[in-house]
Amino acid sequence: MGFFITTVIFLLAGFVGIGLFRVLYNKGPETNLLHYTWVITATICCWLTWAIVYMAQMHPLVVPILKAEGE
Amino acid sequence: MLPQGLPSGSSAGIRLRSRDPSRGTSPAWQDSGSDSDPEPVIRPSAAGRGRRQKLAEWVKKRREAIMAHGGPKGPLPHVPKTMEMFRSEEMQLVQLIIPAEAAHETVSYLGDIGLLQFKDLNADKSAFQRTYANQVKRCAEMARKLRFFKDQIQKADLRISTGGTTEKELDLDELEGKLTELETELLEINSNSEKLRRSQSELVELKLVLEKAGSFFTQARDGAAVQQRELEDSVVASESMDSPLLLEQEMQTDPSKVVRLGFVTGLVPKAKSITFERVLFRATRGNMFLRLAPVETPVIDPQTGEKVEKCVFVVFFAGERARTKILKICEAFGANRYPFPEDPAKQRQMMAEVTARLSELETTIEAGDRHRDNVLTSTAYQIETWTALVRRKKAIYHTLNMLSIDVTRKCLVAEGWCPVFAKPKIQDALQRAAVDSSSTVSTIFQPINTHEMPPTFYQTNKFTSCFQEIVEAYGVARYQEANPAPFTVISFPFLFAIMFGDWGHGILMLLASLYLVGNEKKWMGKKLGDIMEMAFGGRYCILLMSIFSIYTGLIYNEFFSVNFPIFSKGAYTCRTPDCSDETTAGLVKTGATYPFGVDPAWHGSRTELPFLNSLKMKMSILLGVTQMFTGIFLSYFNAKYFDLPLNIWFEFIPQVVFLGSLFGYLSLLIIIKWISGSTADLYHVMIYMFLSPGTVEAENQLFWGQAFVQVILLLAAFIAVPMMLLPKPLALRRQHLASLQHGAYGVLGGSDAEEHGHGEDGEHAHGDHDEFDFSEILVHQMIHTIEFVLGAVSNTASYLRLWALSLAHAELSAVFYERVLLFAVGTGNPVAIVIGFIVFMFATLGVLMVMETLSAFLHALRLHWVEFMNKFYMGDGYKFIPFNFSHLEEDE
Hints:
- Chain A: This is Vacuolar H+-ATPase V0 sector.
- Chain A: Its main location: membrane.
- Chain A: The chain crosses the membrane at residues 6-24, 36-56.
- Chain A: It is found in: Endomembrane system.
- The structure holds 2 protein chains of 2 kinds.
- By secondary structure, chain A is mostly helical.
- Chain A has one domain.
- Chain A has helices spanning 3-24, 29-56.
- The longest helix of chain A has 28 residues, at 29-56.
- The model of chain A has no long low-confidence stretch (mean pLDDT 91).
- Chain B has helices at 51-69, 103-113, 133-155, 172-240, 246-253, 273-283, 320-332, 344-400, 423-436, 465-472, 485-499, 503-518, 520-523, 530-537, 539-556, 608-641, 645-676, 682-691, 706-725, 727-741, 744-749, 774-798, 800-827, 830-868, 888-891; strands at residues 91-99, 117-118, 261-269, 288-294, 299-300, 307-308, 310-318, 336-338, 404-405, 411-419, 444-447, 572-573, 588-589.
- In chain B, the strands form 4 sheets. In chain B, strands 1, 2, 9, 10 and 11 form a 5-stranded antiparallel sheet that branches.
- In chain B, helix 10 (465-472) crosses helix 11, helix 16 (608-641) runs antiparallel to helix 23 (800-827) and helix 23 runs antiparallel to helix 24.
- Among the domains of chain B are: 89-121 and 403-456, 2-Layer Sandwich (Alpha-Beta Plaits); 463-564 and 585-740 and 774-871, no CATH class.
- At the A-B interface, helix 2 of A face helix 11, helix 15, strand 13, helix 16 and helix 17 of B.
């Protein structure tokens, strides 16, 4: 799974979150906006951490060197 | 949330027209309420003179309107929308003119709604000078009596039953009479029973003395009798020897010469008995004889009513002086003396008397107790209702004391803040109060214009309140400024989780938070103790913290430091088929990048720490820059909302440019380096961007035209600093001078409502005709600029705490897992394994789950308060504290 596919998955998850709030917990436009803010912030935060860790491993400058027995 | 159709007043129901609900988004509070209200808007300055006349006019007009309207029908008009935490609710200063006869009901109904904060209009009067001081005093007195009853009920081990509201609601006078009656009754019963108990314990002590001392005397007498007999025998024997012993004979024959020994009996506390004996011995120079007999069970002391271990004593002495000395010593030692007849017959008689009186007393005391219990039980049914009633009444009178009374004493004038959305509700309550108190005129409700800053009010629920509290622990928001809390709801637990990334620990925490949330109904509103109360108050925060911790734990691939290749086998394999150089040259990346989180191949490798260091450090910077930009953009929304274009052009934009060209660029470089796999040294790039602009070494070249871009960014950053510093104070000065030139209008017109509120910063919200100190503004702007420029560096560095704490957490859990658990398992000894597991468990719970949680919490708190909120948050407002009956119980 590449970078863009997972990004799209995060995006979809965000939309699903918004949709769930909209359908299951509809509290009027102002309150919904608050809930959407939460979903969007959470999605961005989660995506950001994932993306950072993913990108850091794309072209590693160091490689894992295993420890010898008994080390 | 707001009811669409409120219950309308029944027969004489009159409804005021709701005021301007459409004015939901007026930008500044200064000019709210200035549009066409049907009622005369009474300004504070004009309030005194024309008020009554206008009032009468208005009442007449309104009556006509009601006649035409045909009474209350249909739903209430459109309910104004709320701000939902993004900003504090729009507030309105209102004036209520309440007819005196309806005042009490009105305040009571408003307390039920709890959406109006009364202003103290009698701030210059002391508590005793106020109108209802007497009633407040009476209520306080009644509250004292109720506390006394509660105390008595608890002492008697009776249960206070709640909700025993069988009787009709009492009014204050009735209740007062009843309480006084009850109190006197209880006090009398108490004093009687105390008297009885004292004489009872005295009798008990006397009885003990009779028993114990009696036994001394009989023993002594028996002993004496034996001696006597021996003596007589010897006398008889010696008579025959015809040599009478003169001394003996004299003693027997002349009783007047015998020194009469006196004695004192009583009880002394056991703890004091040794010193008592010593003091007696010294005082009489050894010329006394003391017998002590400990009483087996503790006896009740008649003076104090406490149970004390005691000894019965008998002191024999000779002479009157010794007697007075001994009596004084007894007094000093708290020894109770009791009479003791020498004659055994008298003793018996006294004993019988005492026993008879004791049993008599017991029945009397029992009867008294029963009576008292009856009184208290009947009180226990009512006490909760009464307490609530008294509390309410006291709050009502306290509030009434804040109102100013009209000269005619026909009506009371109240001023207070209420949220705009609550106006229809309040008006409805006013109507009901007027109807219920059968007042001929109903209360007049009107908005007032003011320059005062309104209080800050957010409508929070059980989920959002703890996040709002986190924000308000730093400072209550200025009225209607952007609230960080909607973002804090997510970003706070998220930053916590960055430092606490372990899905094992996250699951433990999730269980704890679910336990708290599950017991919500049971624990709500109960006293739980300091630490538990804090955890319970923040239960939803802890819940989110744990969920994010599980997420970041999956990203970091940490589960109590155990490796779990969940998402794929990993991207790394050996270089050669026999894996000979895996410990020297290392593995090589052959497959696709690990799809989610840190590759399990890193776990336990020698290069794990260098890799995670670099990753987490860069991650901290990226997250920090993102959050700081969010803060700066919120300052844009503030400037936009309060219509302060100067703040947009000369604060927001230069700030974005400055931060963007330094740390925004650094973030970009980090990402480019990762994507391209370049070996460029980013420290080097950043340092030489300043030291030798326009040149980039070949090995540090990350993209084409890098040198040029860096020069541009450096220039932009340098230009941004004076842009932040100078234009805004200069522009303010120009505006001030311009307003001075046609300032004459304002003075002559005397109308302060039309004054322009904009063009000034929030710090100078009280109008530019007050005074304008250019140097002060300039200094302020200078401080602000320096703070931002230095803060850009230090705040970014401050986010590195994310790196340090998350690394510390991972290393600590690795130490506990490898050095404790694996070491114990390695020994193979079952005892060692059990001990090792217990140590591991306690280390995990104590160090990681408690201490690390607290430290990560504190650091997340700091990052929000300092690094995030200082970009936009003023935090110099004050909280809206409405008059609300449901808050009353928390005060006590």
